[in-house]
């Protein structure tokens, strides 16, 4: 059994994960926002590499059913309907809609994970459900990669802590004798010892949290740190993130 954590998509190639399970986390905020959008009735989220890519993707879809969403430097992209705040993803706004979404780190991380099977989207807000799905995939495949979006190709504390929380939930207690972990997985688990099990402690200590607060997104931070608001498990397949039970 092999458990690998990647603190950023840098260094992760498609052939390392092709056909194998991957859990993607961007706690602040893309994975939290995607979970909220789908839990609140969004039909699908299509990750885009950039704002331009999002516009191109949206052009090929039925205009009435599509919402452009995303951020640059944490703020809504000019001309887009929605930013990257989970609080914007209300049933009234996203119900029945397909979101084409471009964020700085989160959607590129999803695209980097595309070759995986399944590609699970995890956050604190769907922690237990995502951890259970990842644990099942891990048992079946004998391996799991946890991919952190990170920030601008750098380590991000909140994602690394989340990776540690997922790693602990998936392989609880004493490590199995035949479990192989990479160094990042060991370090991520250590972060859980450092910050404990309250998501707010690790999230609040991060640079992303400081930047979000400075721009008035304190409520997003609070939302992202509250575990198990939702029981949904978004899956990326064929460049669409959906809830598989809804198809
Ligand atoms: C990202 O993808 O970089 C983020 O989700 C940034 C954010 O909007 O908080």
Describe the structure.
This protein is of the alpha/beta class and 247 residues long. It is 40% helix and 19% strand. The protein contains eleven helices and eleven strands. The chain has helices spanning 14-17, 30-39, 51-59, 91-94, 106-113, 127-141, 157-170, 183-195, 199-204, 207-214, 218-224, and strands at 2-6, 22-25, 44-48, 66-72, 75-76, 98-102, 119-122, 143-148, 180-181, 235-237, 240-242. Strand 4 (66-72) and strand 5 (75-76) form a beta hairpin. The longest helix is centred in the middle third of the chain and has 15 residues, at 127-141. Bound molecules: D-malate. The site of D-malate (MLT) has 12 residues, from loops.
Helix count equals 11
Rg, rounded, reads: 17 Å
User: How much beta, percentage-wise?
Assistant: 15-25%
Query: What is the overall pLDDT average?
Result: 96
Bound compounds, please?
D-malate
Whole-Å distance between the termini?
30 Å
- Structural class comes to alpha/beta
Which CATH class? Alpha Beta
Low-pLDDT residue spans: none
Main beta-sheet annotation? 7 strands, mixed
Strand order of the largest sheet: 9-1-8-2-7-10-11
- In terms of quaternary structure, what is this? single chain
User: CATH superfamily assignment?
Assistant: ComB-like
Helix content: 25-40%
Structural shape: globular
In total, how many beta strands?
A: 11
CATH topology: putative 2-phosphosulfolactate phosphatase
Tally of individual domains: 1
* Known CATH architecture: Alpha-Beta Complex
Elements, N to C (H/E): EHEHEHEEHEHEHEHEHHHHEE
